[in-house]
Structures are given as C-alpha cells and as structure tokens.
Amino acid sequence: MSTIDQEVAGYYDKVLKRNAGEPEFHQAVAEVLESLKIVLQKDPHYADYGLIERLCEPERQIIFRVPWIDDDNNVRVNRGFRVQFNSALGPYKGGLRFHPSVNLGIIKFLGFEQIFKNSLTGLPIGGGKGGSDFDPKGRSEAEIMRFCQSFMTELWRYIGEYRDVPAGDIGVGGREVGYMFGQYRRLVNQHESGVLTGKGLTWGGSLVRKEATGYGTVYFTDEMMRANGDSLDGAKVIVSGSGNVATYAMQKAQELGATVVGFSDSSGWVETPNGVDIELLRDVKENRRGRVSEYVEETTGATFHKDGSIWDLSADVALPCATQNELNGDHAKALVDNGVKYVAEGANMPSTHEAIELFRAKKICFGPGKAANAGGVATSALEMQQNASRDSWSFDYTDNRLRGIMSNIFNIAANTAEEYDRAGDYIIGANIAGFKKVADAMLAQGVI
Ligand code: GLU
C-alpha cells in the first residue's frame, strides 16, 4: 500500500468505527475518499488541519420524536432527523425524506452527498438532509397534515433562511412542503418564504422546481452524449421509478427525441416499447397517487411485470431515478450485455459499488448522482434567490438557468477528470471538483 492509500484507509477506518451500522454512509464516504487519493497525491495540503476528518463528521445531527394521532385516534410515534453536514459554502441545503427505510445512516449518506452536489452547482449552499421513518403510503390527507405539523413543531427551531433550508425528497412533495410551511409560519409568526423550497407557486415557489431534478438529469445526459458524439434523438432510454424525478426525466427525454422504453415503482415495472404517455402517467401518479399497473390498464402497448428487472430491457441510456442501491452488479452486467452506452443517476447513489466498477471497466459513460441530479437543488437555490429579491421568474428564464447550470456541472466534471489524467471519468471529476471548492472554503475559514 502506498502512503496515500494508507492515509486514506486510516480516514475510512475512523469513519467505520465512529459510525457503526450505517452501510450507506460508509459507501458514500468510500466513493469520495477513493477519488481524493489522486488529489492528496498532487496537493497534500488538502489533508492539513484535519480537513478530511472534519469533512466526514457532520457539523450537527438532530434527532427528535414526532408524535401524531392517526384517524382512528391511535397515538403514533415516528423519528425525525436533520443532519446539518457542512455550511462552509452557505446555509445547509437539502431535502427531507419520508420513508420507512429512513434512519440516521441513510440521512447521513444523503447529507454527505449533498455537500459535493451543492458545491458543484456553483451556488452558495451548504449540505444537509433530513426526514423521518414515517410511511406516507396509505395515509389520509388529514394524517399527512398532522404528521407534517408535528414534524415542523420540532424542526422549526433549527432552520431558517440563513441557517438551513429544507425541501422535498422521496415522500415529500409540494403537498407536504405546504403543510410544513404553514406550521412554520404559524410558529414564528413571520412569512419567511426563504425557509423552505419546493413551495407552491403563489406563495414563494419557483416555476421549474417540480420538473428540475428530472429535467436536469436529462440536460446532463444530453451534454454527456454530445461530448461523446451522440444524441438523445432516436435513443432508447430506461428510466426507473415513476415519482417526481423519473416523470420529468421521461418527459424531457421524449421531448428531445428519445423513446422511454420502461419505468417502474416499488410494485413492479412497465415495458413501453412505443414510449410513455406522460399525461396519463402524471394523472395516475400525481392526481390519483396510484400504482404503475393502473397506467398499463388504461393504455395500449404497455406491459406490467411483477418479476424480473427493468434493467433487463435493452436501451442506449439508463437513468436510475428511484432510490439508493437499486442497480447492482448483476443489473449492470445485463445493461452492458444489452448494449447500454450511457448511465446517469437521477436518484441519490442508485448504483452499487459493483455496478459502478463494471461500468468503469466497460467504459460506459457514467454521470454520478451528485452531478447528474443536482438540477433539483440548483433550482431550489434559484427559488431562494427569487425569495430574497421578492421576485418571481418566468418558466423559460428559470429553465435556461437550470440548463446552463447543468452544462457547467458537466464541463467542470469533464475538465477536472482530464486535469487529473482520468479523462471521461465523471465520477472522479465530480468528486474532486465538488470537494476542492468546499475544502478551500473550510481551509480559509479555519478549524471550526
Ligand atoms: N432532495 C433533492 C436532492 O436530493 C433536492 C434538495 C433541495 O432541493 O434542497 O438534491
């Protein structure tokens, strides 16, 4: 082992010991540390002043009880989290996830990723994440509202326009942000619109925010394909998931001439050789909050599969837009065998380490989540700008800003990879570029 390998193994060992039982957090840290080896080789000062140890330790971790009463008058107790990971570049920024799988390790992995993602946007936002193990599935509107109010009744004291600005993630969309904003406003007796993003359009929300993560992932993919002499026009694309990110990734990909050949939810996957009817899908998922099987029942030429995997489909492009570790080594092998050429992550850490290694070995162009899905949080930062100036921008203006930001992110990742003699490795490029900006700020601001 080289000295750098040993040094980095030492940092990783400390993370493992201090954060036992948090495999997703370990995975996220391991991937970034691996990329940092070549930075430390060239610029050893990035390890000065305990920088790497400080980067891996959240500035603050808040865990709280969220009691609420269900429709049958039973008291329910969930756990709430907010991990304020790093504020060197700006107020903590990152979504809230409501899903039964949520625990501290999941929130820490998401918060850690968010630091580098937010840095890559070029906008002044730090990294944080939060959420709860609350399961919104099957809950009535009133139950969702009571839960959100109870959650905010504790969270409000830790957040603020200049402190920490949460938004949505899995299980948290416009409806939940609305209930949380209402409770916040009531508790602080101020209409502080900059405290949350993803708000409704008449009370401080931004056009394009809803579409932004999915659109951004496709803008990134488009840049990556063009840089490699290809285009989405005529391409076949697999999009896993059918939530907010997936839906708008499908819409934009089809707008740019691609055919989306499949999508999914936790109940199964749908094969759509002739493309996806986005309006029908939006009606099923957004209006009716239904399952993807309902989509199949109401259209022709689409088939629902309970078994097997969406990654068995053959396509030029794969966009995992569902959740962490949804695409493993076997899935990656199937995709590669079927001729996939581009993969971009709309979800956070959807590809396992084995999948990434295979894509690397087979020279598949790979856009990591912290670059490819940064459009959501970038547009949140644009929402913050609009709130701060008490302005609201048009759809086209905001969409153009998003497009420009995604193109910058791709160029930064590509150029940084080249600078470190790893041309085409956008993972290394994104990790290093995201890291250096945060690290420079941390070094300049002293040991805090
Ligand atoms: N949850 C989204 C993400 O993973 C967006 C966060 C935000 O808008 O603050 O980046």
Structural features, described:
- This protein has 448 residues and is of the alpha/beta class.
- Among the domains are: 60-191, Leucine Dehydrogenase, chain A, domain 1 (Rossmann fold, 3-Layer(aba) Sandwich); 212-363, 3-Layer(aba) Sandwich (Rossmann fold).
- The protein has 16 helices and 12 strands.
- The protein has helices at residues 3-18, 23-42, 51-55, 104-120, 141-155, 174-188, 209-227, 244-255, 278-287, 292-297, 329-337, 353-361, 369-372, 375-388, 395-419, 426-445, and strands at 60-69, 75-86, 92-98, 127-132, 164-167, 236-240, 259-265, 268-271, 303-305, 317-320, 342-344, 365-367.
- Strands 9-8-7-6-10-11-12 form a 7-stranded mixed sheet, with helices on both faces.
- Helix 2 (23-42) packs parallel to helix 4 (104-120), helix 7 (209-227) crosses helix 14 and helix 11 (329-337) runs parallel beside helix 12.
- The longest helix is centred in the last third of the chain and has 25 residues, at 395-419.
- The radius of gyration is 21 Å and the shape is globular.
- The two termini are 32 Å apart.
- Bound molecules: glutamic acid (GLU).
- The site of glutamic acid has 10 residues, from strand 3 and helix 14.
